[in-house]
Write the C-alpha coordinates for this entry.
Amino acid sequence: MKGDTNMDKKYVPFDYQRAEAIAKRTKEFYEGPVGKAQIHIKSCGGLRLPKTPPLNSWKFPEDMEKYLDMRAERDYLYARFHEQIDDDFIPSTAPWYGIAEHTAFLGGKVDFTATTTFQHEICEELEGFRDLNLDRNNLWIHLVVDGIKYMREKWEEFIPVRMRGADGPSDVANAIRGTELFYDIYDEPETLAEMMSFCAKAVNFTLDLQRAEATKIAGGCINGFSLWMPGKCMGQLSEDFSTMISPELYEEHFLPALHECVKDCDSAMLHVHSLGHRMIPMFTGVDKIKLMEISSDPNSERAVDVIRKYHDDLKEKTIIVAPTYEELINMDDILANSKTIIWYYAKDEEDARRAMAAVEKYR
Protein backbone atom coordinates (compact mmCIF):
# COMPACT_ATOMS: atom_id res chain seq x y z
CA MET A 1 0.00 0.00 0.00
CA LYS A 2 1.03 3.62 -0.44
CA GLY A 3 3.07 4.45 2.61
CA ASP A 4 4.04 0.81 3.18
CA THR A 5 7.45 0.96 4.93
CA ASN A 6 8.87 -2.01 3.04
CA MET A 7 7.89 -0.56 -0.35
CA ASP A 8 9.16 2.88 0.62
CA LYS A 9 12.58 1.33 1.29
CA LYS A 10 12.66 -0.65 -1.97
CA TYR A 11 11.16 1.77 -4.49
CA VAL A 12 11.82 5.39 -5.43
CA PRO A 13 8.79 7.75 -5.76
CA PHE A 14 7.76 8.59 -9.30
CA ASP A 15 8.58 12.05 -10.65
CA TYR A 16 5.05 13.42 -11.01
CA GLN A 17 6.37 16.94 -11.54
CA ARG A 18 7.99 15.76 -14.74
CA ALA A 19 4.82 13.89 -15.72
CA GLU A 20 2.72 17.02 -15.20
CA ALA A 21 5.12 18.97 -17.42
CA ILE A 22 4.89 16.35 -20.17
CA ALA A 23 1.09 16.34 -19.90
CA LYS A 24 1.00 20.13 -20.16
CA ARG A 25 3.11 20.24 -23.31
CA THR A 26 1.17 17.30 -24.75
CA LYS A 27 -2.06 19.25 -24.34
CA GLU A 28 -0.46 22.23 -26.06
CA PHE A 29 0.73 19.88 -28.80
CA TYR A 30 -2.78 18.50 -29.34
CA GLU A 31 -4.18 22.01 -29.61
CA GLY A 32 -1.31 23.45 -31.66
CA PRO A 33 -0.41 23.64 -35.35
CA VAL A 34 0.89 20.99 -37.72
CA GLY A 35 4.61 20.61 -38.16
CA LYS A 36 5.11 19.51 -34.54
CA ALA A 37 5.98 16.08 -33.22
CA GLN A 38 6.48 14.11 -30.05
CA ILE A 39 8.52 10.97 -29.54
CA HIS A 40 7.82 8.17 -27.08
CA ILE A 41 10.58 5.64 -26.40
CA LYS A 42 8.20 2.77 -25.67
CA SER A 43 10.85 0.15 -24.93
CA CYS A 44 14.59 -0.32 -25.02
CA GLY A 45 16.39 -3.55 -25.78
CA GLY A 46 19.13 -4.84 -23.57
CA LEU A 47 17.45 -4.03 -20.26
CA ARG A 48 17.52 -6.80 -17.69
CA LEU A 49 13.92 -7.04 -16.59
CA PRO A 50 12.49 -9.97 -14.61
CA LYS A 51 11.13 -12.75 -16.78
CA THR A 52 7.35 -13.12 -16.80
CA PRO A 53 5.82 -16.56 -16.26
CA PRO A 54 3.45 -17.72 -19.04
CA LEU A 55 0.02 -16.11 -18.81
CA ASN A 56 -1.65 -19.52 -18.64
CA SER A 57 0.44 -20.47 -15.61
CA TRP A 58 -1.55 -18.08 -13.40
CA LYS A 59 -4.87 -18.87 -11.75
CA PHE A 60 -7.36 -16.00 -11.81
CA PRO A 61 -8.82 -14.38 -9.81
CA GLU A 62 -6.80 -16.03 -7.01
CA ASP A 63 -3.44 -14.88 -8.40
CA MET A 64 -4.60 -11.44 -9.53
CA GLU A 65 -2.71 -9.35 -6.96
CA LYS A 66 0.50 -11.39 -7.24
CA TYR A 67 0.33 -11.18 -11.03
CA LEU A 68 -0.32 -7.43 -11.05
CA ASP A 69 2.54 -6.83 -8.62
CA MET A 70 4.81 -8.65 -11.06
CA ARG A 71 3.65 -6.45 -13.93
CA ALA A 72 3.96 -3.27 -11.88
CA GLU A 73 7.50 -4.08 -10.80
CA ARG A 74 8.61 -4.67 -14.40
CA ASP A 75 7.04 -1.40 -15.50
CA TYR A 76 8.59 0.38 -12.51
CA LEU A 77 12.04 -0.85 -13.50
CA TYR A 78 11.57 0.43 -17.04
CA ALA A 79 10.35 3.76 -15.65
CA ARG A 80 13.56 4.03 -13.60
CA PHE A 81 15.67 3.50 -16.72
CA HIS A 82 13.46 5.89 -18.65
CA GLU A 83 14.35 8.77 -16.32
CA GLN A 84 17.51 9.09 -18.43
CA ILE A 85 15.45 9.70 -21.59
CA ASP A 86 14.09 13.21 -22.12
CA ASP A 87 11.23 12.28 -24.45
CA ASP A 88 7.46 12.82 -24.26
CA PHE A 89 6.50 9.44 -22.80
CA ILE A 90 5.04 9.01 -19.32
CA PRO A 91 5.80 5.46 -18.10
CA SER A 92 2.86 3.69 -16.47
CA THR A 93 1.51 0.30 -15.52
CA ALA A 94 -1.84 -1.47 -15.89
CA PRO A 95 -3.58 -4.84 -15.74
CA TRP A 96 -3.12 -6.94 -18.87
CA TYR A 97 -4.55 -10.38 -19.53
CA GLY A 98 -3.99 -10.69 -23.25
CA ILE A 99 -6.87 -9.38 -25.35
CA ALA A 100 -10.04 -11.13 -24.19
CA GLU A 101 -10.66 -8.75 -21.27
CA HIS A 102 -11.95 -6.18 -23.76
CA THR A 103 -15.12 -8.25 -24.25
CA ALA A 104 -15.09 -11.16 -21.79
CA PHE A 105 -17.12 -9.12 -19.29
CA LEU A 106 -20.10 -9.79 -21.58
CA GLY A 107 -19.81 -13.56 -21.17
CA GLY A 108 -18.55 -16.50 -23.20
CA LYS A 109 -15.59 -18.82 -22.87
CA VAL A 110 -12.03 -17.51 -22.72
CA ASP A 111 -8.97 -19.55 -23.63
CA PHE A 112 -5.62 -18.73 -22.01
CA THR A 113 -2.35 -19.31 -23.85
CA ALA A 114 1.21 -18.55 -22.78
CA THR A 115 1.11 -15.07 -24.33
CA THR A 116 -2.53 -13.96 -24.69
CA THR A 117 -6.21 -14.83 -24.29
CA PHE A 118 -8.89 -15.55 -26.86
CA GLN A 119 -12.61 -14.87 -26.60
CA HIS A 120 -15.02 -17.45 -27.98
CA GLU A 121 -18.25 -16.39 -29.69
CA ILE A 122 -20.63 -15.25 -26.95
CA CYS A 123 -24.07 -15.60 -28.57
CA GLU A 124 -25.06 -18.33 -31.00
CA GLU A 125 -28.15 -16.35 -32.01
CA LEU A 126 -28.27 -12.62 -32.66
CA GLU A 127 -31.25 -12.14 -30.34
CA GLY A 128 -29.07 -13.50 -27.55
CA PHE A 129 -27.45 -10.10 -27.09
CA ARG A 130 -30.61 -9.00 -25.28
CA ASP A 131 -29.68 -11.32 -22.41
CA LEU A 132 -26.24 -9.81 -21.95
CA ASN A 133 -25.68 -7.61 -18.91
CA LEU A 134 -23.29 -4.79 -18.08
CA ASP A 135 -22.47 -6.06 -14.61
CA ARG A 136 -20.02 -4.22 -12.35
CA ASN A 137 -19.57 -7.46 -10.40
CA ASN A 138 -18.49 -9.50 -13.41
CA LEU A 139 -15.21 -11.40 -12.94
CA TRP A 140 -13.51 -9.72 -15.89
CA ILE A 141 -14.57 -6.25 -14.77
CA HIS A 142 -13.08 -7.20 -11.40
CA LEU A 143 -9.81 -8.30 -13.01
CA VAL A 144 -9.51 -5.08 -15.02
CA VAL A 145 -11.20 -2.32 -13.00
CA ASP A 146 -10.48 -3.58 -9.51
CA GLY A 147 -7.06 -4.52 -10.86
CA ILE A 148 -6.46 -0.87 -11.80
CA LYS A 149 -7.69 0.17 -8.37
CA TYR A 150 -5.42 -2.34 -6.62
CA MET A 151 -2.39 -1.16 -8.59
CA ARG A 152 -3.20 2.49 -7.98
CA GLU A 153 -3.60 2.04 -4.23
CA LYS A 154 -0.38 0.03 -3.93
CA TRP A 155 1.85 1.38 -6.70
CA GLU A 156 0.76 4.92 -7.63
CA GLU A 157 3.45 6.53 -5.48
CA PHE A 158 6.05 4.75 -7.59
CA ILE A 159 4.46 4.62 -11.06
CA PRO A 160 1.18 5.93 -12.59
CA VAL A 161 -1.55 3.44 -13.35
CA ARG A 162 -3.20 3.72 -16.74
CA MET A 163 -6.43 2.51 -18.28
CA ARG A 164 -6.51 -0.86 -20.05
CA GLY A 165 -8.43 0.36 -23.11
CA ALA A 166 -11.25 -1.26 -25.04
CA ASP A 167 -12.50 -2.69 -28.29
CA GLY A 168 -14.54 -0.41 -30.49
CA PRO A 169 -18.22 -1.26 -31.13
CA SER A 170 -17.66 -3.41 -34.21
CA ASP A 171 -14.95 -5.46 -32.48
CA VAL A 172 -17.33 -5.99 -29.54
CA ALA A 173 -19.99 -7.13 -32.01
CA ASN A 174 -17.51 -9.51 -33.61
CA ALA A 175 -16.73 -10.99 -30.19
CA ILE A 176 -20.42 -11.48 -29.49
CA ARG A 177 -21.28 -13.12 -32.80
CA GLY A 178 -18.03 -14.33 -34.31
CA THR A 179 -18.17 -14.96 -38.05
CA GLU A 180 -21.99 -15.09 -37.88
CA LEU A 181 -21.83 -11.29 -37.78
CA PHE A 182 -21.32 -11.27 -41.55
CA TYR A 183 -24.63 -13.12 -42.00
CA ASP A 184 -26.39 -10.80 -39.55
CA ILE A 185 -25.72 -7.88 -41.89
CA TYR A 186 -27.94 -9.46 -44.52
CA ASP A 187 -30.31 -11.63 -42.48
CA GLU A 188 -31.26 -9.34 -39.57
CA PRO A 189 -30.04 -5.78 -40.19
CA GLU A 190 -32.59 -4.15 -37.87
CA THR A 191 -31.72 -6.40 -34.93
CA LEU A 192 -28.04 -5.90 -35.74
CA ALA A 193 -28.54 -2.13 -35.42
CA GLU A 194 -29.98 -2.66 -31.94
CA MET A 195 -27.03 -4.84 -30.97
CA MET A 196 -24.59 -2.24 -32.26
CA SER A 197 -26.15 0.37 -29.97
CA PHE A 198 -25.68 -2.06 -27.08
CA CYS A 199 -22.03 -2.52 -28.12
CA ALA A 200 -21.46 1.25 -27.98
CA LYS A 201 -22.88 1.28 -24.44
CA ALA A 202 -20.66 -1.67 -23.46
CA VAL A 203 -17.53 0.20 -24.57
CA ASN A 204 -18.48 3.23 -22.48
CA PHE A 205 -19.34 0.99 -19.54
CA THR A 206 -15.86 -0.48 -19.25
CA LEU A 207 -13.95 2.72 -20.12
CA ASP A 208 -15.91 4.85 -17.65
CA LEU A 209 -15.06 2.41 -14.87
CA GLN A 210 -11.40 2.24 -15.90
CA ARG A 211 -11.05 6.01 -16.17
CA ALA A 212 -12.49 6.50 -12.70
CA GLU A 213 -9.77 4.30 -11.15
CA ALA A 214 -6.74 5.33 -13.24
CA THR A 215 -4.12 7.79 -11.98
CA LYS A 216 -5.06 11.41 -12.73
CA ILE A 217 -2.37 13.68 -14.16
CA ALA A 218 -3.01 17.31 -15.16
CA GLY A 219 -6.73 16.83 -15.59
CA GLY A 220 -6.39 13.69 -17.68
CA CYS A 221 -5.06 10.15 -17.54
CA ILE A 222 -2.97 7.68 -19.51
CA ASN A 223 -4.97 5.55 -21.92
CA GLY A 224 -4.62 1.87 -22.71
CA PHE A 225 -1.89 2.55 -25.27
CA SER A 226 0.21 4.52 -22.73
CA LEU A 227 -0.71 7.92 -24.15
CA TRP A 228 -1.77 10.82 -21.93
CA MET A 229 -5.11 12.38 -22.92
CA PRO A 230 -7.02 15.22 -21.25
CA GLY A 231 -10.51 15.21 -19.75
CA LYS A 232 -13.05 12.49 -20.47
CA CYS A 233 -10.94 10.56 -22.93
CA MET A 234 -11.60 7.29 -24.72
CA GLY A 235 -8.72 5.15 -25.78
CA GLN A 236 -7.59 3.11 -27.23
CA LEU A 237 -10.54 1.99 -29.33
CA SER A 238 -9.85 -0.85 -31.73
CA GLU A 239 -11.94 -1.32 -34.86
CA ASP A 240 -9.98 -4.24 -36.33
CA PHE A 241 -13.18 -5.79 -37.69
CA SER A 242 -13.30 -2.99 -40.24
CA THR A 243 -10.37 -4.55 -42.12
CA MET A 244 -12.63 -7.45 -43.12
CA ILE A 245 -15.56 -5.55 -44.59
CA SER A 246 -16.25 -3.07 -47.37
CA PRO A 247 -16.41 0.65 -46.57
CA GLU A 248 -20.00 0.70 -47.82
CA LEU A 249 -21.17 -2.04 -45.43
CA TYR A 250 -19.20 -0.59 -42.54
CA GLU A 251 -20.67 2.87 -43.09
CA GLU A 252 -24.22 1.51 -43.13
CA HIS A 253 -24.10 -1.00 -40.30
CA PHE A 254 -21.22 -0.10 -37.97
CA LEU A 255 -20.21 3.54 -38.32
CA PRO A 256 -23.37 4.82 -36.54
CA ALA A 257 -22.37 2.87 -33.41
CA LEU A 258 -18.87 4.38 -33.49
CA HIS A 259 -20.41 7.86 -33.58
CA GLU A 260 -22.71 6.90 -30.71
CA CYS A 261 -19.81 5.43 -28.75
CA VAL A 262 -17.72 8.61 -28.72
CA LYS A 263 -20.39 11.32 -28.74
CA ASP A 264 -20.14 12.15 -25.02
CA CYS A 265 -16.35 12.09 -24.65
CA ASP A 266 -13.92 14.97 -24.98
CA SER A 267 -11.65 13.08 -27.34
CA ALA A 268 -11.03 9.54 -28.55
CA MET A 269 -8.03 7.63 -29.85
CA LEU A 270 -8.64 5.06 -32.58
CA HIS A 271 -6.30 2.17 -33.39
CA VAL A 272 -6.41 1.09 -37.04
CA HIS A 273 -4.33 -1.15 -39.29
CA SER A 274 -2.52 -0.36 -42.50
CA LEU A 275 -4.31 -3.36 -44.00
CA GLY A 276 -7.63 -1.52 -43.52
CA HIS A 277 -6.42 1.82 -44.85
CA ARG A 278 -9.47 2.26 -47.07
CA MET A 279 -11.48 3.05 -43.92
CA ILE A 280 -9.35 6.05 -42.93
CA PRO A 281 -11.44 8.72 -44.73
CA MET A 282 -14.52 7.42 -42.91
CA PHE A 283 -12.85 7.34 -39.51
CA THR A 284 -11.42 10.85 -39.87
CA GLY A 285 -14.98 12.09 -40.42
CA VAL A 286 -15.79 11.24 -36.78
CA ASP A 287 -15.12 14.56 -35.08
CA LYS A 288 -14.50 13.21 -31.56
CA ILE A 289 -11.72 10.96 -32.86
CA LYS A 290 -8.79 13.32 -32.38
CA LEU A 291 -5.96 10.77 -32.45
CA MET A 292 -5.38 7.91 -34.87
CA GLU A 293 -2.73 5.25 -34.45
CA ILE A 294 -1.93 3.40 -37.66
CA SER A 295 -0.05 0.13 -37.21
CA SER A 296 1.89 -1.65 -39.94
CA ASP A 297 0.72 -5.13 -40.94
CA PRO A 298 2.68 -7.93 -42.61
CA ASN A 299 2.22 -8.16 -46.37
CA SER A 300 0.62 -4.73 -46.44
CA GLU A 301 1.65 -1.14 -46.98
CA ARG A 302 3.79 0.37 -44.26
CA ALA A 303 1.98 2.80 -41.98
CA VAL A 304 4.18 5.71 -43.05
CA ASP A 305 3.14 5.17 -46.67
CA VAL A 306 -0.52 4.96 -45.65
CA ILE A 307 -0.14 8.32 -43.89
CA ARG A 308 1.29 9.83 -47.06
CA LYS A 309 -1.56 8.41 -49.13
CA TYR A 310 -4.24 9.84 -46.83
CA HIS A 311 -2.52 13.06 -45.80
CA ASP A 312 -5.47 15.27 -46.73
CA ASP A 313 -7.86 13.14 -44.68
CA LEU A 314 -5.54 12.98 -41.68
CA LYS A 315 -4.42 16.62 -41.56
CA GLU A 316 -6.87 17.54 -38.76
CA LYS A 317 -5.89 14.57 -36.58
CA THR A 318 -2.93 13.73 -34.39
CA ILE A 319 -1.22 10.77 -36.05
CA ILE A 320 0.57 8.05 -34.11
CA VAL A 321 3.01 5.76 -35.91
CA ALA A 322 5.85 3.37 -35.01
CA PRO A 323 8.50 3.69 -37.74
CA THR A 324 11.80 1.94 -38.11
CA TYR A 325 14.83 4.18 -37.79
CA GLU A 326 15.28 4.22 -41.56
CA GLU A 327 11.66 5.29 -41.99
CA LEU A 328 12.03 7.90 -39.28
CA ILE A 329 14.96 9.70 -40.87
CA ASN A 330 13.12 9.77 -44.19
CA MET A 331 9.73 11.05 -43.05
CA ASP A 332 10.35 14.79 -42.86
CA ASP A 333 7.50 15.26 -45.33
CA ILE A 334 5.12 13.78 -42.73
CA LEU A 335 6.65 15.47 -39.68
CA ALA A 336 6.63 18.91 -41.31
CA ASN A 337 2.99 18.70 -42.39
CA SER A 338 1.25 16.77 -39.61
CA LYS A 339 0.93 16.53 -35.85
CA THR A 340 2.80 13.30 -35.28
CA ILE A 341 3.57 11.14 -32.27
CA ILE A 342 6.44 8.75 -32.90
CA TRP A 343 6.39 5.48 -31.00
CA TYR A 344 9.90 4.12 -31.05
CA TYR A 345 11.02 0.67 -29.95
CA ALA A 346 14.75 1.14 -29.41
CA LYS A 347 17.38 -1.55 -29.76
CA ASP A 348 19.41 0.07 -26.99
CA GLU A 349 19.94 3.45 -25.32
CA GLU A 350 22.13 4.72 -28.18
CA ASP A 351 19.39 3.85 -30.68
CA ALA A 352 16.84 5.68 -28.51
CA ARG A 353 18.96 8.81 -28.47
CA ARG A 354 19.58 8.86 -32.22
CA ALA A 355 15.82 8.51 -32.81
CA MET A 356 15.18 11.45 -30.51
CA ALA A 357 17.79 13.49 -32.36
CA ALA A 358 16.00 12.78 -35.65
CA VAL A 359 12.78 14.28 -34.28
CA GLU A 360 14.21 17.08 -32.15
CA LYS A 361 13.68 19.96 -34.61
CA TYR A 362 9.94 19.22 -34.67
CA ARG A 363 9.44 19.04 -30.89
